[in-house]
Amino acid sequence: MDSLMKADIFFVVTTVAVFFVTGVAVWVMVYVVKILRNVENISETVKTETKKLSQDIDGLREHVKQRGALPRFLLRWMGRAGGARRERAHASDKK
Where are the alpha helices (DSSP H) in 68-94? Predict the structure, then answer.
């Protein structure tokens, strides 16, 4: 085979390979950008909800400082939960 023909075949194969690799790289980068956008949205949501939770806890703290006790609904809820735990503990002791 003539060396010029070998060079032409090499350049055609190399060109096709470069286009293929470039296409795959672009396809991967598009998905990476989509994933990063989703991560950014999730991060913003977590940041917003964390601020809301912090404000709620600050409000509860202020309530406790002003009134000296937890709100009634929390005391009732904690009492019911504690009572249920005590009842289960007593029931298992009786067995």
Answer: 72-94
